[in-house]
């Protein structure tokens, strides 16, 4: 990923306080900390061992947060190649092994994936 780099913080789980980098793209706006905290508080009883989708993944922070908090697997889907490459790179840095990356339109992915 070239150009200006942005960072967002993982707020819970095994990678708490780690920074996830993402490319500077006009349409890419990571989910803010407060919203992620609320979302994952709601999901905490269902997340351990779950298989998750991070659709319109962008920075990948939602899926990475899910993995950090005990999800077994995450599929990241986004139609921007640079976003998917960045998410894959961040997952590699964190040692993630249970993730799949799809450079594909989300609606096509949902229609063709079973």
Q: Strand-residue fraction?
A: 15-25%
- Intertermini distance: 31 Å
Integer average pLDDT: 91
Which stretches of 5+ consecutive residues score pLDDT under 50?
Answer: none
Quick one: how many beta strands? Answer: 5
Please explain how this structure is put together.
The chain is an alpha/beta fold and 114 residues long. The protein is built from 4 helices and 5 strands; from the N terminus they run E-E-H-E-H-E-H-E-H. The strands form 2 sheets. A 3-stranded parallel sheet has the order 3-4-5, with helices on one face. The termini are far apart. The relative contact order is 0.19. The model has no long low-confidence stretch (mean pLDDT 91).
List keywords for this structure.
114 residues; alpha/beta; three-stranded parallel β-sheet; two-stranded antiparallel sheet; globular
Describe the SSE topology.
Layout: E1 5-9, E2 19-23, H1 33-47, E3 51-55, H2 61-68, E4 73-78, H3 81-94, E5 99-103, H4 106-112
Parallel strand pairs: 3-4, 4-5
Antiparallel strand pairs: 1-2
Outline of the structure:
The protein has 114 residues and is of the alpha/beta class. It has helices at residues 33-47, 61-68, 81-94, 106-112; strands spanning 5-9, 19-23, 51-55, 73-78, 99-103.
